[in-house]
Specification:
Residues 12-397 form the Major facilitator superfamily (MFS) profile domain. This protein is mainly alpha-helical. It has helices at 3-25, 31-42, 46-74, 76-95, 100-117, 119-130, 135-145, 148-163, 165-185, 193-196, 218-249, 254-261, 264-277, 284-305, 310-336, 341-348, 350-370, 375-390. It has two domains: 3-188, Growth Hormone, Chain: A, CATH 1.20.1250.20; 206-390, Growth Hormone, Chain: A. The longest helix has 32 residues, at 218-249.
Length: 400
């Protein structure tokens, strides 16, 4: 590939990565810092704020397939730019919320933006631009946006401490318009898919074209991936919502739980670097199987041995989650090809978004009842996801 094209691709990945960092920091990672302050000022329980956030996740599941279809047709630039406007509108509405209904309405708007502005849309944008060659670019975006919580939480906390949660929401709205919108505008216009990545003869007649033998039923792979994505997003969201409490139930002090939790982010980024450097030479299905197995191993170790294995749990869980984020983008690409990727990705992620919305509540109930032994639930679900991936046909050599 010519150097000029490589440089252009690197600029695109960098722009999308920074825009994704901002999008995640101002939506998915916002309630962790602002929920208490919002609830206190609005006279609501913190759980009500998280319920509104769950509504946003459900709205994103509804919007996802339509956003993906639009990206398949027109490319990702207009969809991502529109999402920045909707993000800004939702954050503005959130900054002006005065009670229950205005809070839920603001998060509903933010959910619409999330459905067309988070990873799935960015992945579909890259596939629309680069076809089967998008795998490394997808990894590049996750390497940058993997720092969304690292950047977002301190900035949100600083804004809230100095000017309050309403000003923090307004600041994030401004960043969407002043920073993320121009970055997404810099993404190249999508050309015809065939020009960017020519399809092999007969590819459109066989949905499973690269990693799985052509005779494998497409519906079986779709169901398996939907299940795996739902389970893995349930686990990652449950851990994100309850990790300090879970570690304390395992015998870890509060200060140590915070320190251990800080290991997850670096573990995710390190695993993505491993994917970018070493695992890119193997089929994504194999790396996904390995990643899916890491949480069950980590959960079993922590449930059996307790506090001494807390750091190992965080590192293994974080590493698995880091690679699985990439797998959510690359597996559908290599198994089904780039044609119709965006809409298919949207449908594949609907169960995952629903599971994600329910995870904090469901796992919280399990933690209330069983304490640290609730880890056996996430361990068992992770093993079922691993077995589901084993049920996919043996991958052919990866040619992407």
């Amino acid at each position: 590939m010519p150097i000029s094209l490589l440089d252009a691709r690197h600029r695109t990945v960098a722009a999308l990565g920074v825009a994704q960092t901002l999008a995640w920091a101002s939506s998915y990672y916002l309630p962790a810092l602002l929920a208490q302050a919002m609830a206190r000022e609005l006279g609501l329980a913190p759980a009500t704020v998280f319920a509104a956030f769950s509504v946003a996740l459900l709205a994103s599941a509804v919007v996802g397939p339509s956003a993906g279809r639009c990206i398949d047709r027109w490319g990702g630039r207009p969809v991502l730019m529109l999402s920045n406007g909707v993000f800004a509108l939702g954050l503005l509405a959130l900054s002006q919320a005065q009670g229950l209904w205005s809070l839920f309405g603001a998060w509903l708007i933010l959910g619409l933006a999330m459905g067309g502005g988070l990873y799935e849309a960015a992945f579909a944008t890259l596939v629309r631009l680069y076809g089967r060659e998008a795998r490394n670019s997808i990894t590049g975006i996750t390497l940058i946006a993997g720092f969304a919580s690292t950047v977002g939480w301190p900035l949100t906390g600083w804004l809230e401490a100095h000017w309050g949660w309403r000003a923090a929401c307004l600041a994030w709205a401004g960043l969407h318009l002043l920073l993320a919108l121009p970055l997404n505008f810099s993404v190249p216009r999508a050309q015809g898919l065939a020009a960017a990545a020519p399809e092999p003869a007969g590819a459109q007649d066989s949905p499973v074209v690269e990693g799985v033998p052509a005779g494998a039923p497409a519906w079986r792979a779709v169901l398996i991936l939907s299940w795996v994505f739902a389970v893995t997003w349930f686990i990652s969201t449950a851990m994100a919502a309850h990790l300090p409490r879970l570690l304390m139930a395992s015998g870890v002090s509060l200060a140590a739980a915070v320190a251990v939790g800080a290991l997850i982010g670096p573990a995710q980024v390190a695993a993505r670097l491993l994917e970018f450097g070493v695992l890119r030479h193997v089929h994504p299905l194999l790396s996904a199987r390995l990643a899916t197995l890491l949480h069950p191993v980590a959960a079993a170790l922590l449930a059996l041995l307790g506090a001494p294995l807390a750091s190992a749990f965080a590192l293994l869980h974080g590493a698995g989650n880091g690679i699985l984020t990439i797998a959510k983008g690359t597996l559908p690409l290599v198994l089904f090809g780039p044609q119709g990727y965006g809409q298919r990705q949207g449908w594949l992620m609907v169960p995952a978004r629903v599971a994600q919305a329910l995870a904090p509540w469901w796992f919280g109930l399990c933690l209330d009842r069983w304490g640290a032994q609730a880890l056996w639930l996430s361990c068992g679900l992770g093993l079922l996801a691993f077995l589901a991936l084993l049920a996919l046909p043996k991958p052919l050599p990866d040619r992407t």
